[in-house]
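Page 37, continued from 36.
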C-alpha cells in the first residue's frame, strides 16, 4: 500500500466526550490532512457500551481490560459502536472531510475467536473465556488501501468477522494496532482520556513520557498499569513489533495534541519504543 503519511488514529469512548470534543477533533484532523497526512480512524466506545448495557439491566463483565462479550453484549456493542461511528462521520463531513464509516468486518478485517486469557487477581490465577471477543489475523481485500489512496478517511468500528462470517467484539486498541501495521502507517496515535501512562496508576498525575517494552513489563508487574491500559500497551508493543515506526498515547481532550506531538514534537503524552 502507498503508505506515504498514512497515520492510524484511534480514539476511545471517553476521549472525545460529546459533540464539542468531536467537532474540535474534526477540525484538528482537517488541519492534519491539509499538511499531507492521510488518516485512518478506529474508535472504541467502552463507556457508552457499558452505559447502554446497564440501562438494559445487563451485567458488565471485564477481564484484563477486555469485555467478556456474550451474544447479547455483542449486539449492544455493535449497535452502540455503529451509532458513534455515524455521529463521527457526520462531524467529519461537516468539516469537509470525505469520511466513510464501516465496521471492521466491512473493511475486510478477518478475526478469530480470542483464546481464553489468564488473569491474576489478588495473587490468584484464573483462566477466563471472553466468549465473542476476537483477535485480528488479517485484512482481506484492498478496500482500505483504495479508500486511503483516493483521499477518503476510513472510520472503523471494531466489530470484525471470522472466515465464516461470525461476528466478534475486538478491543479498539488491538484493532488499531493491526490496521496500523496492515496499512503501513508511519505512526499510530491512541487518543484516550488520560494524558498517557501515569506512573502512580490511574489516579496519579505524573506522566511517563517515554517508555520501553521492558518499562511496560515493570509497570504491569508493579500493578501500575491495569484495566483498559493493559490492552493499550499491548497494542503499542504489537504495532512496533510489526514495524509501525512511531506510537504515541495522547489525551484526546487536550486541544491540538496530535499536531503538537506529530509536528511540534512537544513533550506530551507517552511515546513507546522497543528500547
Ligand atoms: N498507569 C495507568 N496510567 C493511565 N491510565 C491507566 C493506568 N492504569 C489503568 N489506567 C486506565 O486506563 C484507562 C484507559 O483505557 P480505556 O480502555 O478505559 O479507554 P480507551 O481505550 O481510551 O477507550 P475505549 O476502550 O472506549 O476504546 C484510563 O482511563 C485509566 O482508568
Ligand atoms: Mg480501551
Amino acid at each position: 500500500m502507498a503508505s506515504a503519511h498514512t497515520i492510524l488514529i484511534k480514539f476511545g469512548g471517553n476521549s472525545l466526550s460529546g459533540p464539542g470534543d468531536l467537532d474540535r477533533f474534526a477540525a484538528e484532523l482537517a488541519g492534519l490532512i491539509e499538511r499531507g497526512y492521510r488518516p485512518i480512524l478506529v474508535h472504541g466506545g467502552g463507556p457508552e457500551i457499558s452505559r447502554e448495557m446497564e440501562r438494559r439491566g445487563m451485567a458488565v463483565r471485564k477481564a484484563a481490560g477486555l469485555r467478556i462479550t456474550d451474544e447479547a453484549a455483542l449486539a449492544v456493542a455493535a449497535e452502540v459502536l455503529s451509532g458513534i461511528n455515524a455521529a463521527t462521520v457526520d462531524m467529519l463531513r461537516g468539516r469537509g472531510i470525505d469520511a466513510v464509516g464501516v465496521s471492521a468486518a466491512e473493511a475486510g478485517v478477518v478475526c478469530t475467536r480470542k483464546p481464553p486469557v489468564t488473569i491474576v487477581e489478588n495473587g490468584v490465577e484464573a483462566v477466563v473465556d471472553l466468549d465473542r471477543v476476537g483477535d485480528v489475523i488479517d485484512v482481506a481485500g484492498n478496500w482500505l488501501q483504495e479508500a486511503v489512496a483516493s483521499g477518503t478517511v476510513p472510520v472503523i468500528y471494531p466489530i470484525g468477522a471470522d472466515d465464516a462470517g461470525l461476528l466478534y467484539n475486538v478491543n479498539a486498541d488491538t484493532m488499531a494496532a493491526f490496521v496500523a501495521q496492515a496499512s503501513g502507517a508511519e505512526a499510530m496515535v491512541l487518543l484516550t482520556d488520560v494524558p498517557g501512562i501515569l506512573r502512580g496508576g490511574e489516579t496519579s498525575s505524573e506522566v511517563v513520557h517515554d517508555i520501553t517494552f521492558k518499562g511496560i513489563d515493570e509497570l504491569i508487574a508493579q500493578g501500575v498499569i491495569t484495566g483498559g491500559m493493559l490492552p493499550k500497551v499491548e497494542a503499542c508493543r504489537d504495532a512496533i513489533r510489526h514495524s509501525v515506526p512511531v506510537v504515541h498515547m495522547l489525551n484526546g481532550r487536550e486541544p491540538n495534541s496530535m499536531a503538537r506531538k506529530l509536528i511540534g514534537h512537544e513533550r506530551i503524552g507517552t511515546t513507546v519504543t522497543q528500547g
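The longest helix spans residues 71-94. Flag for discussion at group meeting. The chain has a mean pLDDT of 95.
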